[in-house]
Amino acid sequence: MTEIHRRGRGEQADRSAGGECSRPGSVDTVRRRGRRNWLRLGALVLIGALVAGVVALVRQATAPAWPPRDWSLVVCDIGQGDALLLHTGPSSAIAVDTGPEPDREDACLRRFAITDIPLVILTHFHEDHIGGLTGLLAGRRVGAIETTIVDDPPAGAKSVRAWAAAARVPVRRVQPFERGRIGHVAWHALWPDPQELPFVVGPPGNGDNREEGMSEHGGEGSGPNNSSIVLAVSIDPEPAESAAARSAYGSAPASAAARYASASAPAPASATASSAADVAATTPGGPLTALLTGDIESPVQQLLLTGSHRDELRATVLKVPHHGSANQAPGFAAAVDPSIAVISVGRGNPYGHPAARALRLAGSGGARVYRTDLDGDVVIGQTSEPGQVAVRAQHDDGTPGDRAGGSGGPEPGTSPTRRHGYERSHARHQTTSD
Question: Are 411 and 417 in contact, with CB atoms under 8 Å apart?
């Protein structure tokens, strides 16, 4: 009895001393284990956050800068329309068309830090090519605006002249087959040809079947589309006169207009041939060439294929005509033989652009096809490797293009920068004389 009594007192002493805390299943033990688990979980969360932060910093440090500093040509993602930039110097570019909305045009110019625009070329007067002009004019130095020779639709032509007058920017019409050069960029206008134009531009209201992609503007018809300016462009990263050109970019708009007027006047054949040779001689792989086609449709494409300037259609980059409508001449893209084809098109547009036929023709010669609706801004730059161009695509929210590799399918987990060769025809390409 005494022994039993002593054990009981010992147990009682253990309990009073907290000995029960060491017994499995006690309340305090559970609490202690819970605290340890929470501490472990917190440590894991902290470690995970630190790792994620380091990964983000590494990605930011290793990702190519956006926008790229060495870009030559940009096809802006401005929705259903066209807006292109041709790099002419620091903060300076020629603008070809302005898209349908001022805010989106302004946003693209801001993304690429463009404050000086020595020349705006409006290929024709449809809203999706001129509607963003006021966004371009706001707060920037603009030297001159050049338009096509047909004021159709009249309301569009009237709006352009009113906006230009308000901004005190001179407007002039493109000269037949004019050649010009500003900074890094030389161009030759292959169309419109005043002698051939009446055969392909019908009266307003001569609309065609939307299913065939002939007209996206209903009653306005395809006439204005076929009056689009077509430019054979040559872009050199280091032209001989680059230093002088860059120093002139900060001058007043009036002097910029004077520079443009002297540069773009039609020149004799001997002079134009010399100009093309100068451009081609400045880089080992020759200049980056591009064919900018506005909205021309099959009739004009056929005329260009059979005309005296057919050889000048060949280019590294093709801006696919009319947002990739189905109305494409079968041999046109093949004659251009591009390495890169870009379709400027709006996501979910009601016109069925780009048509499957246009996609097939654009990529039939092996060209990589990019689309602004899927890829965002498409940025094309020259590289130090002869016969190579680099292409990057990114949406305005900073995300890479949905198909950064262009046509041929997405390439998950790879860089959005792509290098494309054009040795097969374009490294030796030079613009021919009239």
Answer: no
Q: Give the Cα separation of 371 and 343 in Å (integer).
A: 5
State pTM to two decimals.
0.73
Burial class (CB in 10 A: 0-12, 13-18, 19+), 18: exposed
Q: How many CB atoms lie within 10 A of CB 328?
A: 23
CA-CA distance, 363 to 369, in Å (whole number)?
A: 6
Q: Quick count: other Cβ atoms within 10 Å of Cβ 63?
A: 12
Sign of the Cα pseudo-torsion (364, 74, 277, 238, in order): negative
Contact 355, 324 (CB under 8 A): yes
The token duo for 164 is 């230009």
Q: Report d(CA 91, CA 111) in Å as an integer.
A: 11
HEC profile of the chain: CHHHHHHHHHHHHHHHCCHHHHCCCCHHHHHHHHHHHHHHHHHHHHHHHHHHHHHHHHHHHHCCCCCCCCEEEEECCCCCCCCEEEEEECCEEEEECCCCCHHHHHHHHHHCCCCEECCEEECCCCHHHHCCHHHHHCCCEECCEEECCCCCCHHHHHHHHHHHHHHCCCEEECCCCCEEEECCEEEEEEECCCCCHHHCCCCCCCCCCHHHCCCCCHHHCCHHHHCCCEEEEEECCCCCCHHHHHHHCCCCHHHHHHHHHHHHCCCCHHHHHHHHHHHHCCCCCCCEEEEECCCCCHHHHHHHHHCCCHHHHCCCEEECHHHHCCCCCCCHHHHHCCCEEEECCCCCCCCCCCCHHHHHHHHCCCCEEEEHHHHCEEEEEECCCCCEEEEEEECCCCCECCCCCCCCCCCCCCCCCEEEECCCCCCCCCCCCC
For residue 259, pLDDT over 60 is answered with no
Asked whether the beta carbons of 85 and 73 are under 8 A apart, the reply is yes
What is the rounded distance in angstroms from the CA atom of residue 76 to the CA atom of residue 101?
12
pLDDT at 426: 53
pLDDT tens readout for residues 272-309: 222 222 333 333 457 899 999 999 999 999 999 998 88
